[in-house]
Amino acid sequence: MHSREQWTWVLRKEWRELLSSRSWWLLLGLTGPLVGFAFIGAVRTYGEASGLNGTAAGVGEAFSPLVGVWAPTFSACELAAVFLLPFVGIRLFAADAQSGALKIEAQLPISAIARVSAKAVVLTAGWTIASLALIPAAVLWRSYGGTLYAPELLCSLAGHFLNAGLTLALAAAAAAVSEHPSTAAILTLAVTVGTWMVNFVAAVQGGWWDRAAAYTPTSMVAEFQRGLWRLDVSLVAVVLTALGFGLAAIWVRIGLTVRRRAGGSLVLAAVAALAIAGASLVRPSWDLSESRANSFTRADEAALRRITAPLRIEAHLAPEDPRRFDLERRALRKLRRVLPDVEVRYVSATTIGLFEQSSLHYGEVWYELGGRRAMSRVTTAEGVLESIYDLSGVSPTDIGEEPFRGRPLAAAPRHAGAVFYAGWPAVVLGAALWRRRRR
Q: Which residues constitute the domain of residue 304?
């Protein structure tokens, strides 16, 4: 057989393995109710907040469907990717080793990379089928009278596919390195919990931990769910996914000694580390949300782009101070996307700041720009912009931009329970029985 025919043969074999996997059918059956539970709760809360005769005047992003409906709904996919999808990947990789198929495939004139790529394609297809549970949610939302903004939905979907890719790559590497599926499951869970710990430490310590936490799956998905597409995060996710499947390709080569496979793994990890370091320096990002929740107004952005001097900010706020969260989330994240050189330094003696309130300088935010300094205690986006404008001498020009007024919708989640709790499991069960009968 030619190499293309051999790869097609392996691809079909992996597809049959996926359809025979109980873990995949379980993932498929549970994804619908998970999405339905999140969607029903989000629509009910959104409708109650909108009121029967709710008006959009002045509510801004509070009535953004992306924030109120789709972020919670897509979070169900995140749960499925974290807790269910790894077992599907482990099953597909570990089954070959346990059945002896791995030894047979090793005798074929087809590279390990090609074999692993076939598994990756099949697993991606399996996750795509499970993600089809989002389609009934979109159809129901439209039937209620809601609107769909394609760019922000595609951004959220891309984030969850990148997250699924990371999960599958981690499961593939763990299954290939370990000798038993249970060991691979423990390794996968350990790495997942480790990323959660990085996020927790970053929330307390800040600094270097905060920069590292930006590339964890949880933070990555959160940014995509806000409609923000960061090129550096996307590139890092792609590199880590390639690293995971690359390690799997190395360790499925059972004809090599453990020492050679370990050496190849170290070389691959070093190359990936250099690629990640380079990707982290990439700055472009795109705000695809309808409400422009990740950006200043266009007038403010035009004014800020006229500032070329480096900006230094020193905030005397503890990591768990709500004012620090407000400053970072609503002002500094947007500021970094516009100004080319922004350095932020947080100063605090404790993590909670409870006993620092009596300190003379606690709560101060110092700005340094072009040799001039100014201090403010305001942590809102408006206060930050005012301080920067005072130092730079620039001011925004009104361009007549229409602010986002929100899209309230007083609707109940009608028929959603029947679709997700009865219809979806019935379809999956019917497909599983049909597949079993064919076999």
A: 298-392
